[in-house]
Design goal:
single chain; 141 residues; alpha/beta; Rossmann fold; 49% helix
């Protein structure tokens, strides 16, 4: 079973990792765990006149590594094998694309309890993933 866990460094995302670790033993086979961090695309238009692409790419890598650090530490401590990837783009769409390209069996993600006006109007990342996913999605509170 291949499980995708989108990770943004939040407590909710880390609870999703803890959930997968806790239930991995109940599965008949050891799951293939994929961690995914999505960085919003920063550089557009005139920004590239002042910052070169290598600097932007370094920023994405550093921010992605920082967001993945706690989740990776939890999985390292559990002894479960995993892979990780940092993607750039809109989070929900990047999660769906990764899930399709890597043929994951399940997406496990933290449910953010945000009630801001923007999340009510635009919808949360978890909500969009649930809407767009062809694969089962498990939300962990």
């Amino acid at each position: 079973m291949k499980i995708l866990i989108p990770v943004d460094g939040s407590d909710n995302a880390n609870r999703a990792v803890e959930h997968v670790i806790a239930y991995a033993g109940a599965l008949k086979v050891v799951p293939q765990i994929c961690l995914l961090n999505v960085q919003w695309k920063l550089a557009s238009g005139n920004v590239k006149l002042f910052i070169d692409q290598d600097t932007i790419n370094d920023y994405y890598r550093e921010q992605g590594a920082a967001a993945l650090a706690e989740a990776r530490a939890k999985l390292d401590a559990s002894g479960l094998a995993y892979s990780y990837h940092v993607s750039i783009g809109a989070p929900a769409e990047a999660v769906i694309q990764y899930a399709q390209e890597h043929q994951v069996d399940q997406i496990v993600m933290g449910a953010h309890g945000q009630s801001t006006l923007s999340s009510l109007l635009l919808g949360s990342v978890a909500g969009k993933v649930m809407q767009l996913a062809q694969t089962p999605v498990l939300l962990v509170k």
